[in-house]
Amino acid sequence: MKGAWPVSLSRWLLDSSVYRSIVRHGVADTNRNRSLVVFENLFLHVHPVKVREKTLRFRHTYWLGGISLACALVLIATGVLLMFYYHPSVPQAYRDMKELEFVVDNGMFLRNMHRWAAHAMVFASFLHMLRVFFHRAYRPPRQFNWVIGVVLLIVTLLLSYTGYLLPWDQLAFWGVSVGTNMAKEAPLLGEKVRFLLLGGNIVSENALLRFYVLHCVVLPVGLLLLLSVHIWRVRKDGGVQGPPEEPSEREEVR
Amino acid sequence: MSSIPPLDILESADPLATPRRVALIRPDIRPAVRTIEERYVMTFPHLIVREIILFQLVVIALALAAILVDAPLEGIANPLETPNPAKAPWYFLGLQELLHYFPPVVAGVLMPVLVVVALVVIPYARINLSAGPLWHEASAARALVLAAATAGLVALFSAFRCWPIVVPTLLIASAMFAARGGERGGALRRALARITLPEWIMFWFAVVAGILTLVGTFFRGPGWSFVWPWVSATPG
Amino acid sequence: MPDPPLGSSESEPERPLRRDFLTQLGIGACAVAAVGSGLVTLDFLKPKVLFEPPTSFRAGDPGDYPEGTVRFNRERKAYVIGAASGVYALSAVCTHLGCITRFLSDQNVIACPCHGSRFDLEGNVVQGPAPRPLPWLEVGTDSTGLLVVDTGNVVPHGRVFKA
Questions:
Q1: A16, pLDDT greater than 50
Q2: Would you list which residues of chain A are within 8 Å, Cβ to Cβ, of chain C?
Q3: pTM (whole model) above 0.90
Q4: For B42-184, where are the alpha helices, taking DSSP H only?
């Protein structure tokens, strides 16, 4: 990129000693520097420095894991913003939903983004699971990563479920009542688990506060930890595996 | 490359087993390493830029959806007044539909637990690791077992009048039998014939889950009665 | 994008290539989107409606304030004082560290219990660590002629409302 002034300005910035003290490598126009962009970055260095070109294609994984992750990031960003206007108490929670809808600038938009991203993440995770299954990408050495994936799916469903109660409208209240009544049917532990989950015998302020803590702290932390392990294991197992390769991928295990 | 014999991985747990010949190197065949040619590219920029673009596309799609469709907000929660019907979030509506046919212990606890256990066990089950196409040994025994299993499932779910499960089971079982002997035939039949048993089972699971969810979302009205979707109000 | 071979002089095209233009366009668009998102977020975070008590309050009839009357409104933290030429209001919040002052009628002085600041009836600091005089607050009338004091509006020192 030569000749245009934004290019020479950015190049001057990127080569400056202040910038080089933050980002230690030079401009990424040599393969060495391109490697260092990934290698020396805390967030990026879960990637290998080089990837198989085949894995970049859409039909390889349909990018479903990436779509789920993108939805999760959107949910975290919109969720934090929504937290600035939400009090997890009864009946203030419902008033806050009205305030977000009518008073706060872009409140309705952010709430809608949050809700759509939640639906999209549940759906994308499910499709991702199906894709991994039909590509048989759970076979050794990837078995335990599949198990982590199943746990991640459950955490995603629980995140969606705990968030469902927070608007404290009829839809939320009765949807959660039905769900916790189903949980009550589990033998031995059902009643106790329901009591702990709700902080009582009925869906009330305690339930709202507990679901709020689960939704905003406990489950997101769990999700991020498990996601980190899940992505790291993909890397350690040699990268994403798409359609099984020809010739025959059958292995005899005796 | 075609002159190299296929690779068979053999493992024996017994250290004292009689050694067996694994490969015979004939003097006229040179041993060659079996490699898969792979092309590698730099992660930055190729993968990183794709990730950035994907994130932006997802954000744009979600923003469009957010602008066009509002999230619902009904009246304030009233513990004394149950709406009719009281529906769970959409991803649990399949379960709630099952509740219509089975007692809560079964539909609410037993079935979900079985599903989760079945999912977790997938990579450790031998059948998933070594499966070939369903009919690659076109034995009569296999056909018999499949017919018996189908009949059993259909009988079980029919006893509970659970048609959203019975109908797909019958349809998919017919497809499985239609795939038999499909190596000769059109492109569709050959594609069907290549499907392995675990894939058929997962397909059945996905279809049943989808149908249960769709019925629960669109076809259930007050009192969980059957309604046509264009009659009832928009589901949440 | 391999490195050019050593020893060769890379010819520099004089005008930017289409790829460069599109790259710059893309980066520019991302920058606009980022700045836009930031502004939208900032706007979102500013509360549009506050659920705090209103700053104005009614203080009765102007005739209730002959010269020398001092009335203290505890909830709104203000003194409404009658002068020769009219009515004015002082904030009761001490300018030192925010404690609520009190009017000592026997000494005709406004005193703060926290650190001993004292103010005269015009708000000037007589004694103590207070750095500034008590602010004068806006006094007006509503449509029915009753006095209205706005604790959110400070007026210049000495402005008396002539009723």
A1: yes
A2: 1-4, 6-7, 29-31, 81, 84, 99, 103-107, 110
A3: no
A4: 48-68, 90-101, 104, 111-121, 126-129, 140-159, 163-178
